[in-house]
Amino acid sequence: MTTPADTSTSRARTVLPLRPELADEVPYGAPQLDVPVLLNVNENPYPPSDAVVATIAREVAAAAAGLNRYPDRDFPALRADLADYLAVESGVRVAPEQVWAANGSNEVMLHVLQAFGGPGRTALSFAPTYSMYPEYARDTHTRWVTGRRAEDFTLDVDHAVATIAEVRPSVILLASPNNPTGTALPRAVVEAVLDAAAAIPAVVVVDEAYAEFRRAGTPSALELLADHPHLAVTRTMSKAFAAAGLRLGYLAASTELVDALRVVRLPYHLSAVTQAAARAALAHRTELLAQVDALRAERDALVDWLRAQHHAGRPLQVAETDANFVLFGTFADRHAVWQGLLDRGVLIRETGPDGWLRVSVGTPAETAAFKDALTDVMREQES
Ligand SMILES: *Cc1c(COP(=O)(O)O)cnc(C)c1O
Protein backbone atom coordinates (compact mmCIF):
# COMPACT_ATOMS: atom_id res chain seq x y z
CA MET A 1 0.00 0.00 0.00
CA THR A 2 1.28 3.46 -0.77
CA THR A 3 0.54 6.60 1.15
CA PRO A 4 0.32 9.90 -0.67
CA ALA A 5 3.48 11.93 -0.24
CA ASP A 6 3.09 15.01 1.89
CA THR A 7 4.22 17.42 -0.76
CA SER A 8 3.82 20.46 1.43
CA THR A 9 6.59 19.40 3.81
CA SER A 10 8.79 17.27 1.58
CA ARG A 11 9.17 20.10 -0.92
CA ALA A 12 9.15 22.97 1.52
CA ARG A 13 12.91 23.38 1.42
CA THR A 14 13.30 23.08 -2.35
CA VAL A 15 14.78 26.30 -3.68
CA LEU A 16 13.19 27.42 -6.93
CA PRO A 17 15.31 29.38 -9.37
CA LEU A 18 12.89 32.29 -9.42
CA ARG A 19 14.05 35.44 -11.19
CA PRO A 20 15.27 37.63 -8.31
CA GLU A 21 13.21 40.60 -9.47
CA LEU A 22 10.05 38.50 -8.96
CA ALA A 23 10.95 37.40 -5.42
CA ASP A 24 8.86 40.02 -3.62
CA GLU A 25 6.11 40.35 -6.23
CA VAL A 26 2.48 39.34 -5.75
CA PRO A 27 -0.09 38.61 -8.48
CA TYR A 28 -1.89 41.70 -9.73
CA GLY A 29 -5.54 42.11 -8.93
CA ALA A 30 -8.23 44.27 -7.48
CA PRO A 31 -9.95 42.71 -4.46
CA GLN A 32 -12.88 40.53 -5.64
CA LEU A 33 -15.28 40.76 -2.73
CA ASP A 34 -18.85 39.55 -2.63
CA VAL A 35 -20.80 42.74 -1.87
CA PRO A 36 -24.05 44.09 -3.33
CA VAL A 37 -22.65 47.12 -5.20
CA LEU A 38 -19.51 46.50 -7.29
CA LEU A 39 -18.06 49.77 -8.58
CA ASN A 40 -14.38 48.87 -8.50
CA VAL A 41 -13.18 47.60 -11.88
CA ASN A 42 -14.94 49.80 -14.46
CA GLU A 43 -17.14 47.07 -15.88
CA ASN A 44 -20.35 47.84 -17.74
CA PRO A 45 -23.03 47.12 -15.10
CA TYR A 46 -25.58 45.90 -17.67
CA PRO A 47 -25.40 42.17 -18.53
CA PRO A 48 -26.00 41.01 -22.12
CA SER A 49 -29.64 40.58 -23.17
CA ASP A 50 -31.26 37.19 -23.83
CA ALA A 51 -30.93 37.77 -27.59
CA VAL A 52 -27.18 38.37 -27.31
CA VAL A 53 -26.76 35.35 -25.05
CA ALA A 54 -28.67 33.20 -27.55
CA THR A 55 -26.49 34.27 -30.49
CA ILE A 56 -23.28 33.68 -28.54
CA ALA A 57 -24.52 30.25 -27.43
CA ARG A 58 -25.40 29.27 -31.00
CA GLU A 59 -22.07 30.43 -32.46
CA VAL A 60 -20.05 28.84 -29.66
CA ALA A 61 -21.93 25.57 -30.23
CA ALA A 62 -21.00 25.70 -33.92
CA ALA A 63 -17.35 26.33 -32.98
CA ALA A 64 -17.48 23.46 -30.47
CA ALA A 65 -18.28 21.04 -33.29
CA GLY A 66 -14.80 21.72 -34.70
CA LEU A 67 -12.78 21.81 -31.49
CA ASN A 68 -10.69 18.77 -32.48
CA ARG A 69 -8.91 21.20 -34.86
CA TYR A 70 -6.71 24.14 -33.90
CA PRO A 71 -8.37 27.53 -34.47
CA ASP A 72 -7.41 29.92 -37.24
CA ARG A 73 -4.07 31.42 -36.11
CA ASP A 74 -4.67 34.77 -37.84
CA PHE A 75 -8.46 35.00 -37.39
CA PRO A 76 -9.16 37.17 -40.50
CA ALA A 77 -12.94 37.10 -40.04
CA LEU A 78 -12.77 38.51 -36.50
CA ARG A 79 -10.21 41.12 -37.57
CA ALA A 80 -12.54 42.22 -40.39
CA ASP A 81 -15.46 42.49 -37.93
CA LEU A 82 -13.33 44.58 -35.56
CA ALA A 83 -12.25 46.86 -38.44
CA ASP A 84 -15.92 47.33 -39.37
CA TYR A 85 -16.76 48.18 -35.78
CA LEU A 86 -13.98 50.78 -35.57
CA ALA A 87 -15.20 52.39 -38.79
CA VAL A 88 -18.70 52.77 -37.33
CA GLU A 89 -17.48 53.91 -33.92
CA SER A 90 -14.83 56.43 -34.99
CA GLY A 91 -15.29 57.05 -38.72
CA VAL A 92 -11.77 55.72 -39.34
CA ARG A 93 -11.55 52.80 -41.76
CA VAL A 94 -8.56 50.44 -41.38
CA ALA A 95 -7.90 47.21 -43.27
CA PRO A 96 -8.38 43.89 -41.42
CA GLU A 97 -4.58 43.38 -41.71
CA GLN A 98 -4.15 46.48 -39.56
CA VAL A 99 -6.06 44.92 -36.68
CA TRP A 100 -4.63 42.57 -34.05
CA ALA A 101 -6.43 40.87 -31.18
CA ALA A 102 -5.65 38.82 -28.09
CA ASN A 103 -7.11 37.72 -24.77
CA GLY A 104 -7.75 41.23 -23.48
CA SER A 105 -5.89 44.38 -24.45
CA ASN A 106 -3.51 43.48 -21.63
CA GLU A 107 -2.25 40.63 -23.79
CA VAL A 108 -2.15 42.85 -26.87
CA MET A 109 0.13 45.26 -25.01
CA LEU A 110 2.28 42.37 -23.80
CA HIS A 111 2.73 41.42 -27.47
CA VAL A 112 3.84 45.02 -28.16
CA LEU A 113 6.42 44.83 -25.36
CA GLN A 114 7.58 41.40 -26.54
CA ALA A 115 8.15 42.72 -30.06
CA PHE A 116 9.50 46.20 -29.31
CA GLY A 117 10.76 46.06 -25.70
CA GLY A 118 13.21 43.62 -24.17
CA PRO A 119 16.63 43.61 -22.47
CA GLY A 120 18.52 46.87 -22.94
CA ARG A 121 15.36 48.65 -24.00
CA THR A 122 13.06 51.03 -22.15
CA ALA A 123 9.30 51.52 -21.90
CA LEU A 124 8.08 54.97 -20.85
CA SER A 125 4.78 56.20 -19.46
CA PHE A 126 3.55 59.16 -17.44
CA ALA A 127 2.16 58.71 -13.92
CA PRO A 128 -0.38 58.41 -12.50
CA THR A 129 -1.48 55.80 -15.00
CA TYR A 130 -2.56 52.17 -15.41
CA SER A 131 -0.86 49.95 -12.86
CA MET A 132 -0.46 47.01 -15.28
CA TYR A 133 2.04 48.83 -17.52
CA PRO A 134 5.09 48.24 -15.28
CA GLU A 135 4.16 44.55 -15.15
CA TYR A 136 4.32 44.20 -18.95
CA ALA A 137 7.78 45.79 -18.77
CA ARG A 138 8.94 43.55 -15.92
CA ASP A 139 7.69 40.40 -17.63
CA THR A 140 9.53 41.26 -20.86
CA HIS A 141 12.79 42.37 -19.14
CA THR A 142 12.19 45.90 -20.35
CA ARG A 143 13.45 48.83 -18.24
CA TRP A 144 10.52 50.85 -16.91
CA VAL A 145 10.58 54.65 -16.60
CA THR A 146 7.77 57.06 -15.72
CA GLY A 147 7.55 60.76 -16.33
CA ARG A 148 4.76 62.66 -14.66
CA ARG A 149 1.39 64.00 -15.65
CA ALA A 150 0.49 67.62 -14.91
CA GLU A 151 -1.52 68.77 -11.89
CA ASP A 152 -4.77 68.34 -13.85
CA PHE A 153 -3.60 64.86 -15.00
CA THR A 154 -3.07 65.92 -18.62
CA LEU A 155 0.40 65.80 -20.13
CA ASP A 156 2.71 68.80 -20.40
CA VAL A 157 4.07 68.68 -23.95
CA ASP A 158 7.49 70.15 -23.09
CA HIS A 159 7.97 67.67 -20.25
CA ALA A 160 6.84 64.75 -22.42
CA VAL A 161 9.08 65.66 -25.36
CA ALA A 162 12.11 66.33 -23.12
CA THR A 163 11.59 63.03 -21.26
CA ILE A 164 11.36 61.08 -24.51
CA ALA A 165 14.59 62.66 -25.80
CA GLU A 166 16.36 61.91 -22.52
CA VAL A 167 15.08 58.38 -21.87
CA ARG A 168 15.10 57.21 -25.52
CA PRO A 169 12.38 54.57 -25.00
CA SER A 170 11.47 52.01 -27.64
CA VAL A 171 7.85 51.90 -26.39
CA ILE A 172 5.72 54.75 -25.01
CA LEU A 173 2.40 53.92 -23.33
CA LEU A 174 -0.26 56.65 -23.13
CA ALA A 175 -3.69 55.84 -21.75
CA SER A 176 -6.37 58.17 -23.12
CA PRO A 177 -8.81 58.31 -21.40
CA ASN A 178 -6.32 57.57 -18.66
CA ASN A 179 -6.90 55.13 -15.82
CA PRO A 180 -7.29 55.94 -12.91
CA THR A 181 -7.84 59.63 -13.66
CA GLY A 182 -10.30 59.52 -16.63
CA THR A 183 -8.29 62.21 -18.45
CA ALA A 184 -8.28 62.18 -22.26
CA LEU A 185 -5.32 63.72 -24.09
CA PRO A 186 -5.80 66.52 -26.64
CA ARG A 187 -4.81 65.60 -30.17
CA ALA A 188 -1.94 68.13 -30.19
CA VAL A 189 -0.32 66.36 -27.22
CA VAL A 190 -0.51 62.95 -28.89
CA GLU A 191 0.90 64.44 -32.10
CA ALA A 192 3.82 66.01 -30.23
CA VAL A 193 4.58 62.66 -28.57
CA LEU A 194 4.38 60.91 -31.96
CA ASP A 195 6.85 63.39 -33.47
CA ALA A 196 9.30 63.02 -30.59
CA ALA A 197 8.94 59.23 -30.76
CA ALA A 198 9.59 59.10 -34.50
CA ALA A 199 13.01 60.64 -33.90
CA ILE A 200 14.12 57.84 -31.50
CA PRO A 201 12.37 55.74 -33.00
CA ALA A 202 9.77 54.46 -30.53
CA VAL A 203 6.40 52.80 -30.87
CA VAL A 204 3.59 54.84 -29.27
CA VAL A 205 0.67 52.91 -27.80
CA VAL A 206 -2.43 55.00 -27.15
CA ASP A 207 -4.52 52.82 -24.84
CA GLU A 208 -8.15 53.67 -25.59
CA ALA A 209 -9.80 51.07 -23.34
CA TYR A 210 -12.47 53.65 -22.45
CA ALA A 211 -12.74 55.44 -25.81
CA GLU A 212 -16.46 54.77 -26.32
CA PHE A 213 -17.22 56.80 -23.19
CA ARG A 214 -15.41 59.93 -24.42
CA ARG A 215 -17.36 63.18 -24.45
CA ALA A 216 -18.45 64.86 -27.69
CA GLY A 217 -15.47 66.61 -29.27
CA THR A 218 -12.82 64.39 -27.66
CA PRO A 219 -10.82 62.85 -30.53
CA SER A 220 -9.64 59.27 -30.97
CA ALA A 221 -6.02 58.57 -31.87
CA LEU A 222 -7.38 56.29 -34.61
CA GLU A 223 -7.58 59.50 -36.67
CA LEU A 224 -3.77 59.72 -36.57
CA LEU A 225 -3.07 56.17 -37.77
CA ALA A 226 -2.78 56.95 -41.47
CA ASP A 227 0.25 59.23 -41.03
CA HIS A 228 2.02 57.40 -38.20
CA PRO A 229 3.28 53.85 -38.81
CA HIS A 230 4.74 53.78 -35.27
CA LEU A 231 1.32 54.37 -33.61
CA ALA A 232 -0.79 51.58 -32.13
CA VAL A 233 -4.27 52.28 -30.73
CA THR A 234 -5.54 49.61 -28.36
CA ARG A 235 -9.20 48.99 -27.60
CA THR A 236 -11.10 46.35 -25.63
CA MET A 237 -14.49 44.67 -25.44
CA SER A 238 -14.14 44.65 -21.62
CA LYS A 239 -15.57 48.08 -20.82
CA ALA A 240 -18.15 49.85 -23.01
CA PHE A 241 -18.81 46.65 -24.92
CA ALA A 242 -20.10 44.93 -21.77
CA ALA A 243 -17.99 41.80 -22.33
CA ALA A 244 -15.23 41.82 -19.69
CA GLY A 245 -15.70 38.08 -19.22
CA LEU A 246 -15.01 37.42 -22.90
CA ARG A 247 -11.36 38.52 -22.72
CA LEU A 248 -11.05 40.17 -26.09
CA GLY A 249 -8.81 43.17 -26.64
CA TYR A 250 -7.49 44.51 -29.93
CA LEU A 251 -5.33 47.07 -31.58
CA ALA A 252 -5.21 49.05 -34.82
CA ALA A 253 -1.87 50.04 -36.33
CA SER A 254 0.14 49.88 -39.53
CA THR A 255 0.32 46.46 -41.19
CA GLU A 256 4.07 46.51 -40.52
CA LEU A 257 3.52 46.92 -36.78
CA VAL A 258 0.81 44.24 -36.70
CA ASP A 259 3.06 41.81 -38.58
CA ALA A 260 5.70 42.22 -35.86
CA LEU A 261 3.13 41.20 -33.23
CA ARG A 262 2.26 38.11 -35.26
CA VAL A 263 5.86 36.95 -34.79
CA VAL A 264 5.76 36.97 -30.97
CA ARG A 265 2.24 35.67 -30.27
CA LEU A 266 1.91 32.08 -29.19
CA PRO A 267 0.38 29.96 -31.94
CA TYR A 268 -3.41 29.69 -31.61
CA HIS A 269 -3.51 32.16 -28.70
CA LEU A 270 -7.11 33.10 -29.49
CA SER A 271 -9.32 30.05 -29.06
CA ALA A 272 -12.04 29.11 -31.55
CA VAL A 273 -14.56 29.63 -28.74
CA THR A 274 -13.30 33.17 -28.08
CA GLN A 275 -13.31 34.02 -31.78
CA ALA A 276 -16.88 32.75 -32.18
CA ALA A 277 -18.17 34.52 -29.07
CA ALA A 278 -16.48 37.78 -30.00
CA ARG A 279 -17.92 37.74 -33.53
CA ALA A 280 -21.38 36.98 -32.15
CA ALA A 281 -21.10 39.87 -29.70
CA LEU A 282 -19.88 42.24 -32.45
CA ALA A 283 -22.93 41.31 -34.54
CA HIS A 284 -25.02 42.73 -31.67
CA ARG A 285 -22.89 45.85 -31.25
CA THR A 286 -25.81 48.30 -31.31
CA GLU A 287 -27.50 46.44 -28.48
CA LEU A 288 -24.36 45.94 -26.40
CA LEU A 289 -23.41 49.60 -26.70
CA ALA A 290 -26.99 50.77 -26.05
CA GLN A 291 -26.24 51.66 -22.44
CA VAL A 292 -23.13 53.73 -23.21
CA ASP A 293 -25.02 57.01 -23.62
CA ALA A 294 -26.88 56.40 -20.36
CA LEU A 295 -23.60 55.62 -18.60
CA ARG A 296 -22.01 58.81 -19.94
CA ALA A 297 -24.95 60.87 -18.69
CA GLU A 298 -24.81 59.07 -15.34
CA ARG A 299 -21.06 59.84 -15.14
CA ASP A 300 -21.52 63.54 -15.86
CA ALA A 301 -24.27 63.76 -13.24
CA LEU A 302 -22.06 61.95 -10.71
CA VAL A 303 -19.20 64.39 -11.38
CA ASP A 304 -21.57 67.33 -10.74
CA TRP A 305 -22.89 65.74 -7.57
CA LEU A 306 -19.42 65.01 -6.20
CA ARG A 307 -18.26 68.57 -6.93
CA ALA A 308 -21.18 69.86 -4.85
CA GLN A 309 -20.12 67.79 -1.80
CA HIS A 310 -17.94 69.18 0.95
CA HIS A 311 -15.43 67.37 3.07
CA ALA A 312 -13.20 68.82 5.80
CA GLY A 313 -14.54 72.28 5.00
CA ARG A 314 -13.89 72.29 1.24
CA PRO A 315 -15.55 71.01 -1.91
CA LEU A 316 -14.46 67.60 -3.16
CA GLN A 317 -12.04 67.64 -6.07
CA VAL A 318 -13.05 65.62 -9.11
CA ALA A 319 -10.84 64.91 -12.12
CA GLU A 320 -12.21 65.65 -15.59
CA THR A 321 -13.32 62.30 -16.99
CA ASP A 322 -14.00 60.85 -20.44
CA ALA A 323 -14.23 57.32 -19.03
CA ASN A 324 -16.88 55.32 -17.13
CA PHE A 325 -15.34 56.13 -13.76
CA VAL A 326 -14.61 59.14 -11.63
CA LEU A 327 -11.51 59.95 -9.56
CA PHE A 328 -12.37 62.07 -6.56
CA GLY A 329 -10.87 63.24 -3.29
CA THR A 330 -8.91 64.20 -1.49
CA PHE A 331 -9.18 62.50 1.87
CA ALA A 332 -6.66 62.61 4.70
CA ASP A 333 -7.40 58.91 5.26
CA ARG A 334 -8.72 57.49 2.00
CA HIS A 335 -8.51 53.95 3.26
CA ALA A 336 -11.00 54.79 6.02
CA VAL A 337 -13.42 56.18 3.42
CA TRP A 338 -12.95 53.11 1.20
CA GLN A 339 -13.54 50.83 4.20
CA GLY A 340 -16.58 52.84 5.32
CA LEU A 341 -18.14 52.40 1.88
CA LEU A 342 -17.34 48.69 1.89
CA ASP A 343 -18.96 48.33 5.33
CA ARG A 344 -22.10 49.77 3.68
CA GLY A 345 -21.96 47.25 0.82
CA VAL A 346 -20.28 49.46 -1.81
CA LEU A 347 -16.92 48.39 -3.23
CA ILE A 348 -14.88 51.07 -5.03
CA ARG A 349 -11.14 51.22 -5.79
CA GLU A 350 -8.42 52.61 -3.58
CA THR A 351 -6.07 53.73 -6.32
CA GLY A 352 -4.46 56.80 -7.84
CA PRO A 353 -2.45 59.54 -6.15
CA ASP A 354 -2.51 59.77 -2.38
CA GLY A 355 -5.88 60.78 -0.97
CA TRP A 356 -7.92 60.00 -4.11
CA LEU A 357 -10.47 57.25 -4.72
CA ARG A 358 -11.95 55.88 -7.96
CA VAL A 359 -15.57 54.88 -8.44
CA SER A 360 -16.98 53.19 -11.56
CA VAL A 361 -20.29 54.37 -12.99
CA GLY A 362 -22.99 51.80 -12.32
CA THR A 363 -26.75 51.60 -12.78
CA PRO A 364 -28.80 54.49 -11.34
CA ALA A 365 -29.60 52.31 -8.31
CA GLU A 366 -25.92 51.53 -7.75
CA THR A 367 -24.95 55.19 -8.09
CA ALA A 368 -27.65 56.11 -5.58
CA ALA A 369 -26.31 53.51 -3.14
CA PHE A 370 -22.80 54.92 -3.57
CA LYS A 371 -23.95 58.50 -2.96
CA ASP A 372 -25.90 57.52 0.16
CA ALA A 373 -22.97 55.55 1.54
CA LEU A 374 -20.44 58.32 0.82
CA THR A 375 -22.67 60.96 2.42
CA ASP A 376 -22.94 58.75 5.48
CA VAL A 377 -19.21 58.03 5.68
CA MET A 378 -18.21 61.68 5.30
CA ARG A 379 -20.74 62.73 7.94
CA GLU A 380 -19.35 60.12 10.30
CA GLN A 381 -15.81 61.34 9.69
CA GLU A 382 -16.72 64.96 10.39
CA SER A 383 -18.35 64.18 13.70
C1 LIG B 1 -9.46 47.90 -18.21
C2 LIG B 1 -8.27 48.45 -18.94
C3 LIG B 1 -7.73 47.77 -20.01
C4 LIG B 1 -8.45 46.55 -20.55
O1 LIG B 1 -7.92 45.39 -20.21
P1 LIG B 1 -8.50 44.06 -20.89
O2 LIG B 1 -7.31 43.19 -20.78
O3 LIG B 1 -8.85 44.38 -22.30
O4 LIG B 1 -9.66 43.65 -20.08
C5 LIG B 1 -6.67 48.31 -20.70
N1 LIG B 1 -6.15 49.49 -20.32
C6 LIG B 1 -6.64 50.19 -19.30
C7 LIG B 1 -6.07 51.52 -18.97
C8 LIG B 1 -7.71 49.68 -18.57
O5 LIG B 1 -8.18 50.36 -17.53
The proportion of residues in beta strands is 5-15%
Q: How many alpha or pi helices?
A: 13
Q: Looking at this structure, what is the CATH superfamily of the largest domain?
A: Type I PLP-dependent aspartate aminotransferase-like (Major domain)
Strand order of the largest sheet: 2-8-7-6-5-3-4
Task: List the bound ligands.
Answer: pyridoxal-5'-phosphate
Which term fits the overall shape?
A: globular
Largest sheet descriptor: 7 strands, mixed
Overall pLDDT:
95
Cα radius of gyration in angstroms: 22 Å
- Return the structural class: alpha/beta
Contiguous runs where pLDDT drops below 50 for at least 5 residues: none
> Would you list the SSEs in sequence order as H and E?
HEHHEHEHEHEHEEEHHHHEEEEHEEH
Q: What CATH architecture label of the largest domain applies?
A: 3-Layer(aba) Sandwich
CATH topology name of the largest domain: Aspartate Aminotransferase, domain 2
Question: What's the count of strands?
Answer: 14
Secondary-structure blueprint of this entry?
Blueprint: H1 7-10, E1 37-38, H2 50-64, H3 76-90, E2 99-102, H4 105-116, E3 122-127, H5 133-139, E4 143-148, H6 157-167, E5 171-175, H7 187-198, E6 203-207, E7 231-236, E8 249-253, H8 255-264, H9 272-283, H10 285-288, H11 292-307, E9 310-311, E10 314-315, E11 317-318, E12 325-329, H12 334-343, E13 346-347, E14 357-360, H13 364-382
Parallel strand pairs: 1-13, 3-4, 3-5, 5-6, 6-7
Antiparallel strand pairs: 2-8, 7-8, 9-10, 11-12, 12-14
Helix pairs in contact: 2-9, 3-9, 4-8, 6-7
Bound molecules: pyridoxal-5'-phosphate.
InterPro entries: Aminotrans_II_pyridoxalP_BS (IPR001917), Aminotransferase_I/II_large (IPR004839), HisP_aminotrans (IPR005861), PyrdxlP-dep_Trfase (IPR015424), PyrdxlP-dep_Trfase_major (IPR015421), PyrdxlP-dep_Trfase_small (IPR015422)
Subunit structure: Homodimer.
Modified residues (N6-(pyridoxal phosphate)lysine): 239
